[in-house]
Amino acid sequence: MHDPRLDELANVLTTHSTKIQPGEFVLIEGIDIPQEMVIALIRAVRKAGGIPLVELKQNRIQREIILGGDDAGIKLIGEYEIYRMKKVQAYIGIRGSHNITEMSDVPSEAIQRYQKNWLRPLNDIRVPHTKWVVLRWPHPAMAQQAKMSTEAFEDYYFNVCTLDYSRMEQAMVPLKSLMEETDEVHIVGEDTDLRFSIKDIPVIPCAGEYNIPDGECFTSPVRNSVNGTIHFNTPTIYQGTTFTDIRLRFENGKIVEASANDTEKLNNILDTDEGARYIGEFAIAFNPYITNPMLDILFDEKIAGSFHFTPGQAYEEADNGVRSAVHWDMVMIQTPEHGGEMYFDGNLIRKDGRFVHPALEALNPENLK
Question: pTM for the whole thing?
Answer without folding.
Answer: 0.80
